[in-house]
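Record 1 of the preview.
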Amino acid sequence: MIDIDIKFNKMHKSIVLTLTIIILSFSLLSAQNNAKSLEGLLYSNGKPVSIKIVDGKIAALKHLSARKAGAGIYIAPGLIDIQMNGYMGVDFSDQNLKPEDLKLAINSLRKIGVTSFLPTVVSADPAKMKKSFQNLAAMLDDEDIRLSIPCFHLEGPYLSKMKGFRGAHLEKYIKDPDWDEFSGFQETSKNNIKLITVAPEIKDAIPFIRKCIEKGVVVSLGHHNGNAQEVAAAVESGATLSTHLGNGCANMIDRHKNPLWPQLANDQLSASIIADGHHLTKEEVQVFYKAKGVDKTILISDAVDLAGLAPGEYNRREKRLILTPDNVVMLPVENVLAGAATPLTICVENMMKFTGCGLANAIQMASTNPAKLLSLTNLGEIKEGKRADLIMFRIINNKLEVLKTIVNGKVVYSADKTIDNRL
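->
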């Protein structure tokens, strides 16, 4: 009887051990099957690398020998656009915005290498602004949408009322900062407003900026005519960015006392710029880049919903706009630009062309820097542990040709199904 019990116990242990090995084997096999890898030229130095992706994250970055890798295909972190009003006919502030509309814009942006962006709500009737944030916040419940939209940007209504400085924002909606009103916007957005553009010289702007910082909202200065003292006070209160520097500015300004010099001179301020070749001249881009440097410059598109549409006349948000054949959006009644229609990818190309900076610096300004500004710690770099939001592209005749876009380790766009990227 004892011998039988011993044999049974041995048999039982053997079975348990065998089952354990089988389970572990299946677990290891599953993990291996979940692992993906791709090869190409690392954007930062042009050297061949292999990137291993597991569970949507970068698990390993391995430098390869100087052998042919990726046939001239670069790999970079996905682009991050912190100021977008719309795209491909989709207005992110549309009161009737639907998930399928937003997904159309998201998928269109992924084709040009933009993996994350901030829908930007501008000055309007407060009730409509609330509705815009309510619509956007509700759509973040969709996982695919949330992957591309980390938060929102509020541009206005706390801006300068002066013509030129207010840009295309309608004067009737511009006002002094109202904390209760902003708190209502934030509540409706489910606390997803993480960036706000404010004019520092208007009444109560400085205490408002302090409150925003206390609540974890990044403050940017824009559409303003602030002097050196007002800009300095805003920075001391926590402002860290200038919104589309050089724009949201009157056509005629004093050559000495104007809002540009104090912002360019302040090393604590980063600057977002629209390098589309229309909002700023080549020389302005060069000067801004020299003043701020690669670490303090952020490329944005400031695209409106007309981006990607045919040239013509459009009625948008109580305004008659004209989209020119060379992608300039004008508000004729004010003789000002009214947003942009050039995608961020072209701004990256122009930055290299205008300044002579390399690919690494251009990508940093369109991905790494915006991620750091907003504390998006899982984005903007190719490092172990970061989310695998990546783009694969060629550079042909100084043009970026996006071949594949990867979000959270998944291929979400492919221009050529035959390209071997081992995903």
